[in-house]
């Protein structure tokens, strides 16, 4: 139900209340008049006229209606804003492994190769090289907005983690992927509608095999990584 219908319902409730109050008063007023006439009395405490009762009732009810309207409006727009915040664009990180890659439009991709529909930019940090592929403007929403490939410099990485922290004027959060080089040939960033900054951190461990569901792999675990690299990306949309 839209806010306009809420206002209409409030107005109808006020009108119904005033009408009912006036109807009750009219019945009491007519009964008093009839009683006086039957008793032949013309003196006594006079009742206010129905018109005066209507005006007084209206003056008393209208402020209450305005207060109710304000409260409903605040509740409506507060809920609307919460809904917008909950539905706000937040980036997600997905790893594309060797098997999935071969069944995708990016089949045959090799580290550092060009990808149709994307512009590639290279960043070097620490032991790693980040190949970042940004979708052409005309393909926003059709292809993943950004693809990333991490070159670990030929190290024999057995366990890796790609961590992403994101921040914008409206939202902050984090996401990560833990696996093996075979399970993360490319990283797809689903960031449609996101207009903020991404901080990416790659950690690779060459000394311990990855065991799914095994040892807890937390910050302390990856602090021992012998292959590291980080990158900050500005995901602001081009100005039209």
* Spans of at least 5 consecutive residues with low confidence: 82-88
Biggest β-sheet description? 5 strands, antiparallel
- Overall strand count: 9
What is the helix fraction of residues, given as a range? 25-40%
- Based on secondary structure, the structural category is alpha+beta
Average pLDDT level:
81
Order of helices and strands: HHEHEEEEEEEHE
Looking across the biggest beta sheet, what order are the strands in? 1-7-4-3-2
Would you mind describing this structure in some detail?
The structure is a single chain. Helix 1 (3-39) packs antiparallel against helix 2. Strand 5 and strand 6 form a beta hairpin. This protein has 2 domains: 2-85, no CATH class; 92-234, no CATH class. The two termini are 35 Å apart. It is of the alpha+beta class. The strands form 2 sheets. A 5-stranded antiparallel sheet has the order 1-7-4-3-2. Strands 6-5-8-9 form a 4-stranded antiparallel sheet, with no helix packed on it. The chain contains 4 helices and 9 strands, in the order H-H-E-H-E-E-E-E-E-E-E-H-E.
Short key terms for the protein model shown above:
single chain
Topology overview:
Elements (H helix, E strand, L loop, with lengths): L2 H37 L10 H37 L5 E5 L1 H5 L15 E8 L2 E8 L10 E6 L7 E9 L4 E8 L6 E5 L6 E9 L13 H4 L4 E8 L6
Antiparallel strand pairs: 1-7, 2-3, 3-4, 4-7, 5-6, 5-8, 8-9
Helix pairs in contact: 1-2
């Amino acid at each position: 139900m839209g806010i306009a219908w809420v206002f209409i319902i409030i107005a109808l409730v006020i009108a119904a209340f005033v009408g009912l109050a006036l109807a009750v008063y009219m019945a009491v007023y007519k009964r008093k008049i009839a009683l006086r006439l039957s008793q032949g009395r013309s003196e006594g405490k006079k009742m206010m006229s129905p018109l005066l009762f209507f005006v007084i009732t209206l003056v008393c009810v209208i402020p209450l209606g305005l207060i109710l309207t304000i409260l409903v409006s605040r509740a409506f727009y507060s809920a609307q804003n919460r809904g917008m915040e909950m539905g706000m664009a937040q980036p997600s990180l997905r790893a594309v492994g060797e098997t999935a890659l071969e069944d995708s439009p990016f089949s045959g991709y090799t580290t550092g190769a060009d990808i149709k529909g994307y512009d590639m930019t290279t960043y070097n940090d620490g032991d790693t090289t980040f190949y970042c592929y940004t979708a052409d403007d005309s393909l926003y929403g059709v292809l993943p907005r950004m693809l990333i490939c991490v070159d670990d410099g030929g190290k024999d990485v057995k366990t890796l983690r790609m961590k992403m922290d994101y921040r914008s004027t409206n939202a902050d959060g984090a996401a990560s992927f833990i696996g093996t080089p075979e399970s993360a040939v490319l990283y797809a960033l689903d960031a449609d509608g996101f207009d903020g900054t991404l901080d990416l951190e790659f950690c690779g461990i060459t000394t311990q095999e990855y065991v799914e569901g095994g040892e807890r792999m937390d910050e302390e675990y990856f602090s021992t990584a012998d292959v590291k690299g980080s990158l900050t990306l500005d995901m602001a949309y081009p100005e039209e």
